[in-house]
Amino acid sequence: YVKELGNYEYAIQLLKKALLKLPEDKELLSLLAIIYSDTTASNNFFNTRLADYYYNKILDKYSDDIQVYYNFARYKQNTFDYLFALELYEKGLQLEPLDKNIYYNMGFCAMQIYEYENALNYFSQAIEIDSSFLLAYHARAYIYGIIGSIELSNKDWKNCLMLNPSYIPALQALNSMQNN
User: Fold this and answer.
1) Distance between CA atoms of residues 82 and 33, nearest Å
2) 174: burial class by Cβ within 10 Å (0-12, 13-18, 19+)?
3) Average pLDDT, the chain
4) Given Cys at both, which of 33, 93, 162, 167 links 54, Cβ 3.0 to 4.6 Å?
5) Looking at residue 11, what is its pLDDT?
6) Which residue from 41, 36, 47 is spatially nearest to 8, judged by alpha carbons?
7) Does the predicted model carry a pTM greater than 0.85?
8) Residue 5: is its pLDDT beyond 70?
9) How many Cα atoms within 13 Å fall on the side-chain side of residue 15?
10) Angle, CA of 120, 122 and 123, to the nearest 5°
């Protein structure tokens, strides 16, 4: 709650004090990891060394917690460490093989490192799990456009419009393709 108010310093003090009594508490460790890995501009306490320390400490004790892998991977993704993020997401999938968000984020990471075929596969997996996952259709359409599969790109942009008829990126993409 204190973190949500933006008082990171006070939150850290309270969490560290509580850790003295409960040094292995997953929630306390997780909150510290989240604070230190928060890349928002308002967080003056972003610290990769401490974020890594707390995430690794949590994983040492609670390696069966999907949320820890997901949060750690998102932090690595947000700091452009896409290969490590992919590794963490992969471990998360071992615990929860039908998590559409993990597949979507893996697609994003693969796209960022120009592994377009892998990205397409990940986005397709997310869509297979949830056929109404608009952002996965958007991302897949975008990748199809990059690799020159215009028909497939158009098909996914149209799928976006079926899900949301006023989805501006799809309207713009289809309009752009008609004008070319």
Assistant:
1) 19
2) middle
3) 94
4) 33
5) 87
6) 36
7) yes
8) no
9) 23
10) 65
